[in-house]
Amino acid sequence: MSFQRISARLDQMVPEMIEWQRRLTAIPALGPDNGGDGEEEKARFLREAMKALRPDETHEINAPDKRVSCGFRPNLAYIWKGSDSSRKIWVLTHMDIVPPGELRLWDGDPYVLRVAGDRIHGRGVEDNQHDLVSSVMGVKALLDEGLRPKYDVGLMFVSDEETGSRYGLKYVLEERPGFFKDHDLIVVPDMGNEEGTLVEVAEKSMLWMRFRVLGKQCHASTPANGVNSLKAAAGLILALDRLHSIFSDRDPVFDPPESTFECTKKEANVPNVNTIPGEDVFYMDSRILPGYDLKDILEEVDRIRLETEAKYGVTIEAGPVMNDQAAPPTDPASPVVLSLVEAVKAVTGTNAAPGGVGGGTVAAFFRRAGLPAAVWCTSNDTAHQPNEYCTLNSMLTDAKVFAHLFLNP
User: Fold this and answer.
1) Catalytic option among 40, 65, 96, 131
2) Three-state DSSP class for 220?
3) CB environment 222-249: b (16+ within 10 A), e (fewer)
4) Element (DSSP H or E) covering residue 186
5) Residue 1: what pLDDT?
6) For the chain, which end, N or C, has fewer CB atoms within 10 Å of the first or last residue's CB respectively?
7) Edge-to-edge strands of the sheet including 315-324?
């Protein structure tokens, strides 16, 4: 009966959810690595807004960063006491967003919310404002109905998720050991599927590499006078593709079930057609099943590098720009997973199940610290895309799942 009251209350709060999204979208919370001034303006909005919810505890764990005008990156936590304070139920979301990319691909200003039927569009509306708003509304509905959660409830809003979390969750865990407990229920709503049936408990290792191919620049009409770095880079890209067959294990827990090795970004070389380039730089994004040691991957890449150097007469510099061995998975039978599965069933009638993904989330930092965390949300998978959107229905669904979790863990 109590949850039915909360659910009905949340049905009436959709206009408030839209307004929150409108206010948040208007604040381009870009970290300095993405050309912005950080998250402080968004944090100021949240500090003021959260006063109305009367939290029992407020914590600010600010990470010093001289690159932003305020001198720090904010991390905010709010806690409401339950009838039993032996554990907390946490929902952690992030404040920072990614740049909009090519503006010509957007149907409007990325920082002005557009509502089109059930969809709301704008940079950050899904990643991660969708569940930031849903988690706040889940708490608000509980309070508006005068209900007290069973356990303490905590909401945390962190910085720097999009560029490594050095100033976000990683900093919080280092500066406040013991802030989170291993018996807490920790939810990171930053990945999922449209049906809400995936409870993510495992992530692949992440290896991002930069390759710099050095040849000799010359006029294109006299190629014998130079060494074509672009041709060698193309050969290296094709040779790296054999990593798929060398590290070919499959694990059905993950989607996709195999390791992936994809060459992605390429930096510009010469600006004119009639010059053979002497330098080419490109990158590879690899998502690798946890059973493989990244040292073995790097050794094989080095063998391919040496072969390519010999074949094309170039010098190749290669090294990782991200080298994260997968964190230990969360036990599929852990309380947070079972509670989420129960909440999803109660709200949507569907059967959620634990699984693994190729992407990475801040849950990895929890898992490395021995803190079981589950990643869950209903996701339209438009993060980082032009015309990013989330649906009103998914925001409402997630708010109800969180409220159920707070009330019936």
Assistant:
1) 96
2) coil
3) eeeebbbbbbbbbbbbebbeebeeebee
4) strand 185-188
5) 64
6) N
7) 260-266, 279-288, 205-214, 315-324
> Which letter does DSSP use for residue 163 in this model?
G
Say which residues have a Cβ less than 8 Å from residue 204's Cβ, sequence separation at least 6: 254, 259, 287, 288, 289, 290, 326, 356, 357, 358, 360
3-state SS, residue 275: strand
Q: What is residue 359's predicted lDDT score, i.e. its pLDDT?
A: 75
**How far apart, in whole angstroms, are the C-alpha atoms of residue 405 and residue 409?**
5
Residues 6+ apart with CB under 8 A from 286: 206, 207, 208, 209, 243, 259, 260, 261, 262, 297
Q: Is 37 a catalytic residue?
A: no
Backbone angles phi, psi at 377, to 5 degrees: -170, 170
pLDDT of residue 255: 85
Give tens-digit pLDDT for 329-357: 999 999 999 999 999 999 999 999 999 98
Give the contacts of 43 (CB within 8 A, at least 6 positions apart): 74, 76, 95, 157, 159
Considering 40, 126, 161, 184, which one is annotated as catalytic?
161
Confirm whether 96 is a catalytic residue.
Answer: yes
Listed in sequence order, the residues at least 6 apart from 378 whose beta carbon sits closer than 8 Å to its beta carbon are 192, 193, 194, 195, 196, 394, 397, 398
| Spatial contact of 344 and 194, defined as CB atoms under 8 Å apart | no
Compute the distance between CA of residue 290 and CA of residue 97 in angstroms, rounded to an integer: 28
C-alpha to C-alpha distance for 356 and 335, rounded to whole angstroms: 18
| Residue 237 near residue 365, CB atoms below 8 Å | no
338's CB contacts (< 8 A; 6+ apart) are: none
Confidence check: pLDDT of 360 > 90: no
Entry pTM: 0.86
Using CA atoms, how far apart are residues 20 and 14, in angstroms rounded to an integer?
A: 10
